[in-house]
Amino acid sequence: MPLGTLDRTPPPFFKQGPSALSRLVVFSSLAFFCMVADVRFRVAQPVRAVVATVLYPLQWLTLQPVFVLQQVGVHFESLQHAQAAQEQARRELAQQALRGSRVEQLMLENLRLRELLQLRRQLTTSAQTAEVLYDAADVYTRKLIIDKGMSQGIALGSPVIDESGVLGQVTRVQPLVSEVTLVTDRDLALPVLNARTGARTVAYGDPAGNYASGLGGLELRFMAGNADVQAGDMLTTGGVDGIYPAGLPVARIDRIERRADSAFARILCQPLARVNAARHVLVLQPLANQIPPRPEPENPPGSVRKWGRK
């Protein structure tokens, strides 16, 4: 091959284009021009809108796991808040129920204290208030323990009443507390007066009697079968026993059983006092402390009367 026919141009690998500085200047100018044109004339807005529309499904699919994780986190957080709020509501409800029961108890106690104070104003004998501490340990008796004793001036045999009537009698006195035997105790006998007929009798405690309340009551013993008594008659203290003041309500006749094989009627009475629910009571001074002593006879027993001569 003749030498003149050979291509002496360098291969493309060794061809030299514009310099890097020239290309930097050109592309920088082009970028600046595009930015100015976009700001002034918004020439790239349609292109941007098309690109955003095309890429939106891809962005939506990419963000779905993030949204799912956020919803799961919000669900568990709201569930935790709901459980905490429910627990708080339960505690507040329990506190409100406790406060409500206390309010009802205080209202009932306030009402009974008002009735007790009103009864105290009607009494002519001296009295002092006391609070029931607890029931006696003996289950076969009907007794209470109050918070007043010998140091507060409580005397043995003092009558004890509540706002409804006679509750019992002090049967044991200690320095700081006293024992009260209730009217339903089998060992207590109480002279009573039928307010309708004026007949006097004695009421005995009957703790195992079959009464309407099921809490025991009193029984009028040795009453004739044809005695003038009726269900509903009020029994009060007569004031002649030297212990109880007259006119204190004791019981109401609940049932009368007249039997042909017996000369006596079985008369069951319901106590008016709250024998199983007393909280505050009045302790009266025994009536014997207010009765003047009996006058001494002119001639004491065993003395010899001297007769003077006329």
Give short descriptive properties of this protein:
310 residues; alpha+beta; 12 strands; 2 domains; six-stranded antiparallel beta barrel; 25% strand; Thrombin, subunit H; single chain; disordered C terminus
Describe the protein.
The protein is an alpha+beta fold and 310 residues long. It has two domains: 22-122; 127-289, Thrombin, subunit H (Beta Barrel). It contains two helices and twelve strands. It has helices at 20-41, 45-122; strands at 127-135, 143-146, 159-161, 166-173, 178-182, 189-194, 200-206, 217-224, 234-237, 249-257, 264-271, 280-284. The chain has a six-stranded antiparallel β-barrel with strand order 1-2-5-4-3-12. A six-stranded antiparallel β-barrel has the order 6-7-8-11-10-9. A hairpin with a 7-residue loop joins β1 and β2 (143-146). The longest helix has 78 residues, at 45-122. The protein is rod-shaped and about 190 Å long. 20% of the residues are buried. The model is unreliable at 306-310 (pLDDT under 50).
